[in-house]
Amino acid sequence: MKPKVTMIAWSQNDNYVVTAVNNHLLKVWNSYTGQLLHDLVGHADEVFVLETHPFDPRIMLSAGHDGNIFIWDITKGTKTKHYFNMIEGQGHGAVFDCKFSPDGQHFACTDSHGHLLIFGFGCSRPYEKIPDQMFFHTDYRPLIRDSNNYVLDEQTQQAPHLMPPPFLVDVDGNPHPTKYQRLVPGRENCADEHLIPQLGYVATSDGEVVEQVIGQQTVDQDDQGLEPSILDGMIRQLQLQQDQRTGADEESASNGLQNGEGTPRRG
């Protein structure tokens, strides 16, 4: 196999360069002379993550598709810490990205199974206050392109960044309680009735009414003769309210300019 470099990173003080090679080795080089200093052995698959510590020039983090995360001392060429991302019943999860915190005390990684892994000093108690599974309900909503090739949400015909704040759901699409919904920016002061009811009722093509957890309905519902989901209706209503507010702001701004008031101030 012809060796190929997949990633490259400089040490914090620029004295060293670390390269990841497709034979699963990491190589540490002197950046001034080009001399090979160390071969770092440990990965079993290609490495696409190399992260430098924010202030300690000795420390380099590596992670790859083999599920391994290593902390290296690149000055000595030694392994300091190792973590293997084993997921119960599913094998290992490939690690796609890692980043250090600005103070260098923590780092966070994301994997192929949608997990966020947080490492560092201290205890995990603060993280136990939030659910294990947190997704936005819009994460897997279908998108379309308009005539200008811009991306729009299929249901509301709006650019995704202009849509109302999304709802927090678990991996099955079940909405979380209202105390978690208020953690979403833009939903801090929403009334309880705007933070998703827990259950809804839908009618099948046979006229049978069934209870269903909101958010579990699929985009194929129309083909199956099901009524639109309650959550979709709430999204449509929120989008309409937002459009009306935007239109009112534009109208008041236009009237103010026509009356010679100059640029109006927003309350």
From TrEMBL:
Entry keywords, A to Z: Repeat, WD repeat
Gene3D superfamilies in the record: YVTN repeat-like/Quinoprotein amine dehydrogenase
Region (Disordered): 240-267
One Gene Ontology biological process: regulation of cell shape
Repeat listed as a keyword: yes
Mapped WD repeat ranges: 1-39, 40-82
SMART domains, sorted: WD40
Entry-linked InterPro entries: Bromo_WD_repeat, WD40/YVTN_repeat-like_dom_sf, WD40_repeat_CS, WD40_repeat_dom_sf, WD40_rpt
GO cellular component terms given for this protein: nucleus
Pfam families, alphabetized: WD40 (PF00400)
Keyword Electron transport: no
SUPFAM superfamilies recorded: WD40 repeat-like (SSF50978)
Protein name: BRWD1 protein
Annotated gene: Brwd1
